[in-house]
Specification:
By secondary structure, the protein is α/β, with parallel strands linked by helices. The chain has two domains: 184 residues, Periplasmic binding protein-like II (D-Maltodextrin-Binding Protein, domain 2, 3-Layer(aba) Sandwich); 202 residues, 3-Layer(aba) Sandwich (D-Maltodextrin-Binding Protein, domain 2), CATH 3.40.190.10. The protein contains 19 helices and 15 strands. The strands form four sheets. A five-stranded mixed beta sheet has the order 2-1-3-13-6, with helices on both faces. A four-stranded mixed beta sheet has the order 14-7-12-15, sandwiched between helices. A four-stranded mixed beta sheet has the order 9-10-8-11, sandwiched between helices. Helix 2 packs across helix 14. The longest helix has 26 residues. The N terminus is likely disordered. Bound molecules: beta-D-glucopyranose. Beta-D-glucopyranose binds next to loops.
């Protein structure tokens, strides 16, 4: 906690400096893209804008899921000094829109025809009362596994088709002295793994009932107990230093062969690419066993803070740049995500990106596309954070699986 406050204070001081240096014609962008792969993707956007004469004022706040970024944002808004544009996820966008804090992007959206090319699932979070309030950048999903191919080959492990095979693969790696699972013990990372584990243990109806409908019966069910039990299996296969580790350092363990697998959203692919690794040769990407037909998605969007009633020229330029088809391809190829538009060719994407695009379209068509609980697309922040707390306490041994399910019922009922 202390560390977090310190970090936030430093960031706020940095923010004050960056604001004083801002010029008219600049956009100040608050985001949490701080890893190597993320920075490479962000550069694509910066350069695009700078090429059009719009300057970039960077305001990074590390931490996947954006919890720390949202805390800094709240402080900036409270002090009457909101940033121009903010990376945001799902329900956070709707919460700010309800507070009337976001600029209306309708003129840009209508001019650029967003209604026709942005999928419904994203529009549900990008519009409030029928008005566009944010610009979708991409679609990520959380039910992926990343594996070191040489490590799997050396241990005779094929891509696991179900939970039992996955558990067997973890045991094989442990017996060979390789860390089976690269993981960072931070609440949002524990929850990211839980997205996939719960979807696999209970299927899409269970996932929806528990995390989207917040149904008490599902939250306290035997299936939830089984999901927690599987988390214990995973917890038993991480290394001793997992606590507090950043997600990209966990990815690095898979990249350098220290660990076999990481369960993480497809931003992890950005790290492999940034390290010069090739999918299918150096690393493998596959859906978490038992979730091959499902996609648990989160879409990064940029919401523009109202700077006095009208969208500024810079905000409009940023929104237009983000949704341009060429940017959607160039950015998402580097980021690991897939385009937020349905009309972008998959030609420039690698094998994992092509699969991501195919999976997304298939899941949307078959009713298998669900918002990620861990990344703010299933329930509002208060509920999400309550779920995080239980998952993390259980992961760190505070409760057994049965108690965790009971705690989840209570925590959600208090938060909602
Ligand atoms: C964001 C990704 C980001 C990841 C890790 C997620 O919440 O959607 O864009 O790469 O966090 O920072």
């Amino acid at each position: 906690m202390r560390k977090f406050i310190l970090k936030t204070t430093t960031t706020l001081a940095a923010a004050a400096v960056s604001v004083s240096m801002a010029h008219a014609g600049d956009v100040e962008v608050l985001h949490w893209w701080t890893s190597g792969g993320e920075a490479a993707a962000l550069n694509v956007l910066k350069q695009d804008l700078e090429g059009q004469g719009t300057g970039w004022n960077d305001m990074p706040v590390a931490g996947g899921g954006g919890e720390s970024a949202m805390t800094v944002l709240r402080a900036r808004v409270t002090s009457g000094n909101p940033p121009t544009a903010v990376q945001m996820l799902g329900f956070d966008i709707l919460d700010w829109a309800k507070e009337d804090a976001l600029a209306d992007l309708n003129d840009v959206a209508v001019k650029e025809g967003w209604d026709d090319v942005i999928p419904e699932a994203l529009q549900a979070f990008a519009k409030h009362d029928g008005q566009w309030v944010s610009a979708p950048v991409n679609v990520h999903s959380t039910n992926w596994v990343w594996a070191n191919k040489a490590v799997l080959d050396a241990n005779g492990i094929a891509v696991p088709a179900n939970w039992e095979e996955f558990e067997a693969a973890l045991e094989t790696l442990a017996a060979a002295g390789v860390t089976p699972v690269a993981h960072g013990g931070q609440a949002w990372q524990d929850a990211t793994v839980f997205d996939a584990v719960a979807m696999s243990a209970g299927g899409p109806e269970f996932y929806k009932a528990a995390f989207i409908d917040l149904d008490e019966e599902a939250l306290g069910s035997d299936t939830m107990v089984e999901s927690f039990r599987r988390m214990e299996v995973i917890r038993g296969h991480v290394d001793d230093n997992f606590s507090g580790r950043d997600w990209n350092l966990a990815t690095a363990m898979v990249i350098n062969g220290e660990a076999g697998f990481q369960m993480m959203g497809d931003w992890a692919k950005g790290e492999f690419l940034n390290a010069g690794k090739v999918p299918g040769e150096d690393f493998l990407c596959f859906r978490f066993p038992g979730t091959e037909d499902q996609v648990t998605f989160n879409a990064d969007q940029f919401a523009m803070f109202d700077q006095g009633g009208k969208v500024s020229a810079e905000q409009a330029a940023l929104a237009t740049a983000i949704l341009s088809p060429s940017f959607q391809s160039a950015f998402n190829v580097v980021k690991g995500s897939v385009p937020a538009r349905t009309d972008v060719s998959d030609e420039a994407f690698d094998a994992c990106g092509k699969q991501g695009m195919k999976d997304l379209a298939a899941a949307a068509a078959s009713g298998n596309l669900y918002g990620s609980m861990a990344h703010g697309h299933a329930a509002p922040a208060a509920v999400k954070n309550a779920i995080y707390d239980v998952i993390t306490a259980h992961f760190n041994g505070e409760y057994d699986a049965a108690t965790a399910a009971l705690e989840l019922v209570d925590a959600v009922s208090i938060a909602k």
